[in-house]
Design a protein that fits this description.
The chain is 46% helix and 16% strand. By secondary structure, the protein is an alpha+beta fold. A hairpin with a 5-residue loop joins strand 9 and strand 10. Helix 5 packs across helix 7 and helix 8 crosses helix 9.
Length: 388
């Protein structure tokens, strides 16, 4: 079988003798190689890259071009609505300033370039101190309010309070991706980092508070303080994580000491009750005592004022009488005598002794004016209209 040309249209004679690579008769050992002719033929082949002869050569080139086209088309990628595109050229992040938004984009195909598409809008959760009882779990903290929905992990939840008490705390940390590139490249395992930092920070916050604060009214304060501290540390590590919320589900003493703890709490409650009762009694007694003291002081002041005023009046009266006595001794003496008798006899019983009559001489005094006053009927009061 003879072939009219090779892959580049070379000359091929009959038989299996040697062939020239760019056409022409086979060289002989005595003919020198024409370099200039060889260069001209090489330039002509580069101007016409498609082989001019041979079915096999044409197919190989077409397949090669199709492969290159497909490889170039593989550079198109799509970013979903909840993702961002992180473009890398030979492993280096190139669109750090502005990751690719949702939509269709093009970048260098693999292995020159590659694209990572992390989900940045999904809210993730980390449970510390417990694990969901079901394999799937839930994204809502309210679904774990019942202890039956949780499997306790004591090694994570046991914490020491500021007053040296031990509490078992179950809590959830909600987070999402803030920076896709930082999330992918700065930390090997961001979820483990979030969990480790959250557990460490909450231990630090609880260690500064008494157990009563963690059990009762200051739980919201602990959540807010822990949230701020966790976010600060995650930013310092460059994790690209945004912590959305920290929620304490359950704060309780360990089961092994729950009875003793309840006894202590009941004793504290009784102590507070007794103290409150004493405070209430003190508050009821002190105002009354203060009022009585003020009343006594005011009465004493009034009595003092009365006595002083009376004494001053008596002194002035005595001075006036003395001045009148100096001016008219007889009249003043008689007047003082009569006034003194009037003051003495006005309340005394009157007995008349008649020495002229017979008998004992004692005559009962009949106060006729007083009898007339008692016998006279009472005068009715006149109404406002003037009619009796």
């Amino acid at each position: 079988m003879t072939n009219s040309g090779g892959p580049w249209g070379q000359y091929s004679g009959g038989g299996g003798g040697p062939k020239r690579p760019f056409g022409g008769p086979p060289p002989s050992s005595r003919d020198p190689i024409d370099i200039e002719d060889l260069i001209r033929k090489l330039k002509g082949n580069f101007k016409n890259p498609l082989p001019s002869g041979g079915y096999t050569g044409n197919l190989v080139v077409l397949l090669l071009m199709a492969s290159v086209a497909l490889w170039l088309l593989s550079g198109f990628y799509r970013v979903e609505s909840d993702q961002v595109g992180i473009e890398m050229l030979f492993g280096r992040w190139t669109n750090e300033a502005e990751p690719s938004p949702p939509g269709l984009h093009y970048y260098w195909p693999y292995p020159i370039g590659s694209v990572e598409r992390p989900v940045v809008t999904r809210e993730n959760r980390i449970t510390i101190g417990f694990r969901p009882a079901s394999s799937g779990g839930s994204r809502f903290a309210s679904d774990y309010a019942d202890r039956s929905a949780r499997e306790d992990v004591p090694d994570e939840g046991m914490m020491l309070t500021g007053d040296e008490n031990i509490v078992d705390i179950d809590f959830i940390v909600f987070w999402r991706i803030k920076s896709g590139g930082d999330y992918l490249f700065n930390v090997r395992d961001p979820e483990v980092a979030v969990k480790t930092v959250s557990e460490s920070v909450l231990r630090e916050v609880v260690g500064k508070k008494p157990i009563v604060a963690a059990l009762t009214e200051r739980r919201r304060e602990i959540e807010q303080e822990a949230l701020a501290a966790i976010q600060t540390r995650m930013d310092s590590y460059g994790t690209g994580v945004l912590v959305k919320n920290v929620q304490l589900l359950d704060v309780a003493p360990p089961p092994s000491v729950i009875d003793s703890f309840n006894d202590v709490q009941r004793s504290r409650a009784d102590k507070e009750k007794s103290r409150n009762q004493a405070e209430a009694y003190r508050n009821s007694i002190l105002p009354v005592a203060r009022g009585e003291a003020v009343k006594l002081v005011q009465e004493a002041e009034a009595y003092r004022q009365q006595v002083v005023s009376k004494a001053e009046g008596d002194a002035k009266r005595f001075t006036a009488v003395y001045n009148a006595y100096k001016d008219s001794k007889d009249v003043t003496s008689r007047r003082l005598y009569l006034e003194t008798l009037e003051e003495i006899l006005q309340n005394a019983k009157t007995v008349v002794v008649d020495g002229k009559g017979g008998g004992t001489g004692v005559v009962p005094y009949l106060p006729l004016p007083e009898i007339q006053k008692k016998a006279a009927p009472a005068v009715p009061s006149t109404p406002a209209g003037g009619q009796p």
